[in-house]
Amino acid sequence: MATVEREKELFGILKQGVIDYDEDVVKEAAQSVIDDGIDAYTAVFEGLVEGMNEVGRLYEEQEYFVPEILMCADALYAGLDILKPHIDKKDMGVKGAVVMGVVQGDVHDIGKNIVKMMFDVAGFDVHDLGRDVPLDKFVEEQLKTDSELVLLSAMMTTTMVGMKDIIAKIKEKNPNVKIMIGGAPVSEDLADKWGADGFAKDANNALKEALQMVKALKDMQQ
After folding, report:
1. What are residue 127's DSSP bridge partners?
2. Own/partner long-range contacts of 74-77 (Cβ < 8 Å, ≥24 apart)
3. How far apart are CA 212 and CA 60, in angstroms?
4. Which is nearest to 98 in space by CA: 81, 67, 73, 123?
5. SS3 (DSSP) at 133
6. Per-residue confidence of the chain (222 residues) as pLDDT tens digits?
7. Cα distance between residue 41 and residue 126, in whole Å
8. For a 10 Å CB count at each end of the chain, is N or C smaller?
9. What is the rounded CA–CA span in Å between residue 202 and residue 169?
10. Contacts with 74 (C-beta within 8 Å, 6 or more apart), sequence order
11. Contact (CB, 8 A) for 199 and 191
């Protein structure tokens, strides 16, 4: 078994490899995780995802732009390709179905894709609508799948305003659904104002919030 120091070292290499968009470094470190018998799930979250969270911060501060983000995502997926087959779907106590997508007019789906990957790994049943999703499509998909959660993502201030209408329409049809919003221009204040149940500033937060929301729903139904 690898030592704690070795785990930390490899997670640090994975994180930095994503930030530096160095696919070769990420692949090598991911393979070492498997060879050394280190938990692949932990490596994804504490290595690759931590790196992508930092990339998101650099993007917000305009140190990175879309080309860098895309290369960082490629590095992340290069690591995922190696690690994901070694991940057992974790039983995190609660399961649920989730509808997610990037709102109409917006094609920035990197953040949403990271969130999707985390929900997949956590064992959620994910219905991914993709990007530039018409507002009514979220409502239709929630009713069709009876999902407990709807996740709305936007990266532009011009497109995020559509979230308000989606939230109202979904709640009108199904008041018990939990809705979370996320993306660079979105804030907790906006989530409260528009009637969303949660706000996630990054993928880790999205998963934690979602697990709490589903647990609260399940408790209510008992």
Report:
1. 99
2. 74/21, 74/23, 75/17, 75/18, 75/20, 75/21, 75/22, 75/23, 75/26, 75/51, 76/18, 76/26, 76/48, 76/51, 76/52, 76/114
3. 27
4. 123
5. strand
6. 679 999 999 999 999 999 999 999 999 999 999 999 999 989 988 999 889 888 878 887 889 987 898 899 899 989 989 998 888 765 555 678 999 999 999 988 877 887 887 787 777 899 999 999 999 999 999 999 999 999 999 888 888 889 999 999 999 999 999 999 998 788 999 999 999 999 988 777 788 888 888 888 878 776
7. 18
8. C
9. 25
10. 21, 23
11. yes
Domains of the chain (ranges plus CATH)? Answer: 4-86 (1.10.1240.10), 97-221 (3.40.50.280)
Q: CB atoms < 10 A from the CB of 70, how many?
A: 11
| Structural tokens at position 14 | 């994975």
Cβ atoms within 10 Å, residue 85: 9
What pTM did the predictor assign? Answer: 0.73
User: How far is Cα 80 from Cα 41, in angstroms, rounded to an integer?
Assistant: 10
State the sign of the Cα–Cα–Cα–Cα dihedral 46, 48, 51, 57: negative
Give Rg (Cα) of the chain. 18
